[in-house]
Write a structure and sequence with these properties.
The protein is mostly helical. The protein contains seven helices and no strands.
């Protein structure tokens, strides 16, 4: 493919699909500036592989998969930079109850683990089927279903204010009336 035609085709793709991809990136990162960086990195990888991508209908999947991979790599790098210390950070006061459901949902999504957040974003924001999510994330269909189920339970608990179901904080000892063990 000629360079000018390749660049024009890529530019047209970015203009057409950019806003939807940016929304997906924002849901993965939880921060608008990080989302822009993530999308830029994913589009760079896509541009480098543009000639190798035969099926132009699969471009969104390619870019989304690149965003998920890059986001996970960045997340792992950040966690390697964190070291334990003897001093505890200052406790932040609980945020006031917000009447804006969208803000509460964004906060709850940010608290989900990476795979859960990616599955929720792909299913409900990008309207992918469970099979497409499994293919995009490189996991089995059963893993998608269980991940989605657990993520939805955590989101419901977070939005309902249930401390037993908050993302990353399920503790059977603190919720004896639930009768559930080891979620």
């Amino acid at each position: 493919m000629q360079i000018a035609g390749r660049e024009e085709e890529f530019r047209e793709y970015v203009v057409t699909r950019g806003p939807a991809l940016l929304r997906a990136a924002h849901q993965l990162t939880g921060h608008p500036l990080d989302a822009e960086d993530l999308l830029q990195n994913a589009l760079t990888k896509t541009y480098q592989a543009w000639d190798r991508i035969q099926d132009r209908g699969a471009l969104d999947g390619y870019v989304r998969r690149a965003m998920v991979n890059i986001n996970i790599s960045q997340w792992r790098r950040r966690h390697l930079e964190e070291y334990p210390s003897e001093d505890l950070p200052e406790a932040r006061p609980e945020a006031e109850v917000c009447g804006d459901v969208h803000e509460q949902l964004e906060t709850a999504l940010r608290r989900l683990p990476e795979r859960m957040r990616a599955a929720i974003v792909l299913r409900y924001y990008e309207d992918m089927t469970e099979t497409e999510i499994a293919r995009t994330l490189g996991i089995t269909l059963g893993t998608v279903k269980s991940t989605m189920s657990r993520a939805m339970a955590k989101l419901r608990g977070e939005l309902a204010g249930d401390p037993c179901r908050r993302a990353g904080s399920y503790d059977v000892a603190n919720c004896p009336e639930s009768g559930e063990e080891g979620l």
